[in-house]
Structure formats: C-alpha cells, structure tokens
Design brief:
elongated; six-stranded mixed sheet; 479 residues; homodimer; Alpha-Beta Plaits; 20% strand; alpha+beta; binds zinc ion; 13 helices
C-alpha cells in the first residue's frame, strides 16, 4: 500500500482494520488505564492540578497519535485540548469530534468494588471513573484514526479531523460556549461528532440523533411584607405560596400537555416513520422505571415513554419553596414563595420564544397583591439531525460494519448538553457516536467500559473517516 | 350601705363604681407596673423562673383582692393560677374568667422606645410588654370586682367568680386543654369570659362573639426514590412538586371558595342582620391592609374582607417545599415535596369531618406513582356566641354604661385560641371582653395599654357582675 497521501479515498477493509486493532489493543488499553489514573474531577477545586495533568496527558497522546497540531486551550476554568490533523485532500470534509477529559467525583466508600482511580480489568470490562464517561470514548478516536490510516494506506485521515476535549463537562461546561465562540474559526467544521453518549444495549447498536434543549427560570412571588398571622388575615389576602401552587398547576392541561400558550410553536413533530422506529426498539418499561427510580409513568397523552423523554418538550418543577418548612406547623400567610422551573425543548423550539411565552402566561395568572420576579438562565438549544442526513447514514453504516452487519437503530437523548453550542456557534449538524451501554454506570460507583464495545467504537471511526467524504459528496447539491 | 351579703342583687350605680375606681386607680396601676416588671416570657426557657414569679405575684394579688381560694396549678409546662370567689347566693350564676400571665419576648433593641420590662406611663398610656396582652386585661378584673362590691354594698360578688390565668398562651397553650380537662369540675361554669382580645377602636366599643377554629395538616409527597435527572426522565414520570402544586391549586375554585367536597358542611352562615352589623362598622380597608402588611385583598366571592376573616372558613398554605431550593438551578425531578396546610373553621364545622373530607379529596387527586402521607395536628374548634344570647346582651349593656351609653357593636376574631377548649370541655358559652385597641402593639415593640380604656374594663365588670344574674334568669326556660 502507498504511504503517501493520494486524492482518491479508498474504503477501509474490515480485515485490515481489525488486524490493526488486534495488534494495538493491549497498548491502547494501557494508555487508557494510564489516563484513568489521573483523577481529573472538575467539580473538586483540589483536583484542578489533576485536571491539568489530564489535559497534558491527552495532548501528549494526541501528538503521539499523529495529530499535527495539538494545543491546550485555557478557559476561565479548566483547560480544554484541541487537536487537528488535516487530510491534505482539497475537497475533504472537516469533522470536529467532541468529548471531555474531566470526570465525576468518585470515592471507594461510595460503593466501588475497586479503587475508582486504579483501573481494573475484570471479565472484559475496565472499571474506573471515566472509563465510559468520557475518557474511553475520547480515546477510541486515537486508535480509530490509526486503524483508518493503516487499512487505507494513507498518512493522513481522509477527513480533516479536529478534536475538542473540554475539561468542565461534569461541572456544567460553564466556559464551553465562550471557548467555542472564541475559537470558532479554528473549530469550523462540516460536521460535529459528539462521543459522550451511549448505545441502546450491547446487542442493539444505535446512533443518537439529537438532544433536547433546556430553558430554566426562577420565579419569586411576594405577598405580605412579612409572614402574617393566618388567623387574623387568612382568607382575605393573597397567599404567595398558593399562587406558586396555582402556577405549577397551570403548567399542564388535563392531558399533561404543557398549557403555556405558544409553547409548542414550531415543534418538529415526530414523523410516523420515526415513531415506528422508536416503537420497534426493545423497550422494557419496568426496567426503565427501575433506572428512573420512579413508581409510575406520567406524561403527555398520545406519546410513549420514549417519545416523551426523547422528542417531546416538557415543563418541570425542579424546586418549590415558601413559608414555613420546619417541624410542626405555623399558621401563617407566608411573605414569599419561590419556583424553579425548567423546560426541555425539542427541535424547532426557540428558547427566546419560550421565554416570551412563559413571561406572558405568568403575567396573566398572578393576582393583584402579589408581586413577582422572573429570571431566566442561559438556555441550551435542542439539536436534531434528520434521519436522512448523509452523515448520519455514514455513521450508521460504519457502525453496522463494526457490529458485523447488525441493523443500527436511532435514539435520542432527553438531556441537554454542550453539543448544542457546537451546533449554534459552528452552524454544523451534530451527530452522536458513542458505544457506552446503560450498565456502564455513568456518575455512579463501579463505572466501567465493555472492552469489546470500545473496540467497536475504534472500528466504527476507522470506517467512518473513509466513508464520509463520498457520502457527503453524494448528497451535495448538484451531485 | 349594708356590709353583709344579701340575697337580692342590686345594680351597681355608676357614680359609686366610678368613685371607687378613681380612688384606687393609682394603687391599681402601681400593681400592674409591678407585675409588668416580671419578664414572664414563656417561650424562653431561661425565663421559666420569671413565669413562676409571675404566677406567684398574681396569686398574692388575687388573695389580697379577696378571692377565697387561690391556687397555683402545675402543668407539664408553666404554672397557671386559679382563683375562686363564691357569691354565697344560692342561685348565682358561675362565671369563669380566662386570661394569661405569660408574655411575648421583648428586647429594647427590637425598637422599643422604653425598657420593655420597665413599665412607663406617657400621655395616659402605660408602655411595657404584657400591658395589653394580657396582664392589663387580667388585672382589671381585680379592681372590677372590688368596685362591684363597693358599689353594691356586697362582701362577695353577685356571681360565683372564677379566674383561670394560664402561663403558656404565648407558647401555643400546649398543656391548656389537659389542664382544663384535669380540673373540669373546679372550672365548671355557666359562662366563660375571655379577657384576651380587644375592641374595634378607642371610639367604637365592641364585644367579640367568636373565634374561628383551626385544623392543620402536613402532606408529604414521594415520587422517585431520589432526585433524578429531568433530562433523562422528565416528562415521563410524575413529579411530586408538580403534584403538590396541583393540590394547592385544587384547594379553591375560581371564586376562591374552598373546593374540597364537604368542606362547608354545617357552616353557620351569617344572617343578613349580622352582615348588616358588620357592614356598619367603620372599616378602613386601606388601613387594614397596612396592618396586614399586604398589597391586595383576595378571598371568597360574595363576602367582605371582615366577613372573610371573621366568619368564613379558609384553606391556607402555610408552607410548601420540594426539590432544589438553593441558588441557581438544578435540572431534577425531585424525590419529594411537602405541604403544610391549615383550615380555619367557623361555627358548625366539625374538625373530624374536615379531616375526613380532606383525606378523601386528596386521595382522589394524587396520581399513580406518587406516594403520600398526611398527618393532622390537634384541631381547635371554632366558638361562637349567638347575638341574642342573654349573657352577650349583659356584657354589651355593661360595656355601654362604661362607655357613657355608646352603642356597643359586635366583632369576631379570625384567629383560634384556647377559648375553644373552655367551650368544649366545660360546655359553656364563651364571651370575649377586652378593652385593648389595635394600636396597642400586641407581640410588637412598644406594647401599651390606654389607661382610660383599662378603667372602662374595670367599670364594665363592676356593672356586669351585678347585671348578669337577672339577665340570665330572665332568659332561663320558663322565665
Ligand atoms: Zn460525559
Ligand atoms: Zn394574649
């Protein structure tokens, strides 16, 4: 095979990819273990040195992998790592891979059977904090691009490959949007691939196609200037805690649909085809409820549980408080009450429009004699890749090859994340490529990664970088 | 005048009553000041010795006044004082006067212009903690019965006079009901007179005819076993904070009437005559709102503010809590939420029936997947004396004489108090005789009593003990 770049992109043969992976699996896992030993817990200030060590370790590893540019990017918080490896091909698409190198806190006494920062392989699984979320899933890209090169005989990937690995995801990515905005030109891409999610199960490979957005607000209701006696005044003055309750009750109608006028404006409804695909998934509601630690389902009429958490917007009460909350009773009309609400948003919903809708709805419900204040946090937009997007088809195809021809299905993620910032700032569609499974224990004791699945991730990317240029070209206008 | 008891009860002439009061006013006020110097704050454990000193001081004063039996009654908390002065007349009615000798906490730095426990007379007012609530209003009964004797020439009152002065009213009377039950035979009376309320204003003498009762409950709602992620699960599982809000909203209908089925069962409605009497009162709603520290009125449709707080039952949210209440936001479906509700009750409502109604109503509203617990506290019954009760007419008549023939009007008290225990245990109607005015500053800095009004209280009782036997006899069956 030629060792010089050429302008034709050849497919990566499976046997060559698999041979490369097999040859390098052991060294790769040693690297992963080394990285997992660095307790890069972004939420613990005393670990900030470890977060930096983690960034430095990753930089060294990416350089060793072959990335031509590797930089540690400072933020007002923990550092991120950026790496770039140009294709050399004039018409190569540019792909930006996103992940994070910080991890959740972990301590042996939380219920770990092994030391959380001493990775341990047992029965084909590597246990350790960050194994799945997200170091394992960042790292498979290093062996993946090398397998891609080995199998295609190229010296640079067939796509312009960029990596952005942030260091504060587990702390809510407080500086991520600013970072992306600051480096928007360096990060420019045709496509973003987020490797920080998972698949349906070990036996059902899936690609996530979108995340919900979120808008949140805090509402403070003020009634009497101080708590007043409910005997002397109760029944004749408005009670802010009662008003808060009424606002909560007014969030939904009798069908559990959000009752705020305008809330559903622009919502991208699920097509019948998408609903059918979701319905085909082997969903075990009882098992899901166990995971949800909940004792019943309740949601928007006319939608299944999966549709509700993946594709439907919500209004949720995150917190409520007012009046006396100590032991026993206190016969007062409280001076104030407070609500924390959040709204999950789906594709087509505009957070600014939601804010306007909520403000207008609220203004019409608060009675005279109650003053209120409402403040919104910074929203996260929803993101969604259409099922017929060529990149999505390429990802699913590559994954199917890695999974021996298994049918790849589509999921969504109910949560919200920094992926939306990439979509917003870069104007690029976002795909989600993850091989973690629900049993991996994200944010829980005994987090692990299935090593065979990890290699499927490696393999998927090895194929993907080969397949993507043609897939995107085929779909280009005029193609 | 005869100095021996006789069996005919003569009216107490005004000039004789007033002459006696004038002659003893100064010594009486010295006594009141001495009592006010004892900081009998029942809510402060370090003052328990002072509360006992206060009981002892009162015992000595009552003995000096002429009461034939004076006892300090122990409770599981602070001591009460009981005193008795039999009439000697075979058919004399028995009257039990209720008051309390404990006071609210007070400290100079709370905004007092004088030392709270160093009573100070300025411009005809005595300032000091307890001046109006309730030492002044207990003590006027001592000079009152002496004026009654002096003006009628009797050596014992024309009624069998009993006094019960508790020491924990400002701490919620936790042992009062047990005390009344324990001594029910000693306390037996045809009538209870509570001197622990006030009048409408300096220029509008009034008699309070009833208090609302109160039933309270705490409701805990449990959803997920722990706070769960609102992105992963929100929109598909029931949220206990949302349920708490819906329960709050369901408390009332659109007319602010309590919407719990059966809640109004048995309610003694205001007659048109009573409504007219209330409407005649010189009510300044703006001033009332200032007192209520509220910024608007809201209550049951079809009723005025005074009707709402005096004569209508209510459902009030005293406290609500659930989920995240700290700074910022947290996107969770909370594990639990909690409500503290209280219901003011009016005559005709039975607390046990209310509890049953609330439990049934709640059970029908909580969705599957939410577990709840509800617990009721000990209720306080409402009490109400009919406007045509002869004792009420006697009290109003005596008060009118003391106020130079002014028309005495009727009020009610929206709060709830130990008066209901007297009514329940003793089976006696309860009347309220108080001469305090709204500006007296109960529970606030610079509490005071108007000395001229205090003397009107003395004078009212001097007449009342003379008038009551005939008034009750006239109304007795067969009279
Ligand atoms: Zn992650
Ligand atoms: Zn009092």
């Amino acid at each position: 095979m030629s060792q010089t770049p050429d302008s034709a992109v050849h497919p990566a043969p499976s046997d060559a990819v698999r041979a490369h992976i097999a040859a390098h699996r052991s060294a790769f896992l040693d690297d992963l273990a080394a990285w997992l030993r660095i307790p890069s817990v972004s939420a613990q200030p005393e670990r900030s040195g470890d977060v930096r060590r983690s960034a430095d370790w990753l930089s060294e590893k990416l350089t060793r992998t072959g990335f031509t540019t590797v930089e540690v990017w400072e933020t007002d918080g923990a550092p991120a790592v950026f790496a770039e490896w140009p294709s050399g091909l004039p018409d190569a698409p540019t792909v930006l891979v996103y992940g994070h190198h910080d991890v959740q806190p972990a301590a042996r006494e939380d219920g770990w059977h092994t030391e959380p920062f001493e990775p341990t392989v047992i029965d084909g699984r590597m246990y350790g904090r960050g194994a799945a979320d997200d170091k394992g899933q960042v790292l498979f890209h290093t062996l993946g691009v090398q397998a891609h090169l080995a199998a295609t005989g190229r010296t640079a990937p067939a796509v312009n490959l960029k990596l952005l690995v942030e260091g504060e995801e587990e702390s809510g990515s407080p500086h991520f949007r600013a970072l992306v905005e600051q480096h928007a030109d360096r990060l420019a891409a045709d496509l973003a691939i987020v490797s920080d999610t998972g698949m349906w199960s070990e036996t059902t490979p899936t690609v996530c196609t979108g995340m919900r957005g979120v808008a949140d607000c805090e509402i403070d209701f003020y009634g009497p200037d101080q708590d007043i006696h409910s005997g002397s005044f109760g029944g004749a003055v408005p009670n802010p805690a009662t008003v808060a309750g009424r606002i909560v009750a007014a969030l939904h109608d009798d069908t559990e649909r959000v009752a705020i006028p305008g809330f559903y404006d622009g919502v991208t409804e699920l097509s019948e085809a998408e609903r059918a695909l979701i319905a085909e998934l082997p969903f075990d509601e009882a098992a899901w409820l166990t995971t949800a630690k909940s004792h019943g389902t309740l949601g928007e009429a006319g939608h299944s549980t999966l549709e509700r958490v993946w594709a439907r917007p919500t209004a949720e009460v995150n917190g409520i408080g007012g009046g006396y909350q100590g032991p026993g009773g206190k016969t007062i009309v409280p001076a104030s009450a407070h609500l924390k609400l959040s709204f999950r948003l789906v594709a087509g919903q505009d957070p600014a429009h939601i804010e306007t809708a909520v403000r207008g709805w609220l203004a019409g419900l608060v009675p005279a004699g109650i003053r209120y204040e409402i403040a919104f946090g910074a929203p996260t937009r929803p993101c969604l890749t259409p099922l017929d997007h060529p990149a999505l088809k390429a990802v699913a195809g590559a994954m199917s090859r890695a999974f021996d021809g298994a049918k790849v299905r589509y999921t969504r993620e109910g949560g919200s994340g920094p992926a939306a910032d990439l979509q917003d700032v870069l104007g690029a569609p976002v795909l989600f490529l993850g091989i973690s499974v629900p049993s991996d224990g994200w944010h829980a004791p005994n987090e692990k990664i299935e090593l065979d699945l990890l290699m499927k991730g490696v393999e998927t990317t090895a194929y993907l970088w080969s397949d993507l240029p043609a897939a995107l070209r085929a779909d280009a206008p005029g193609a």
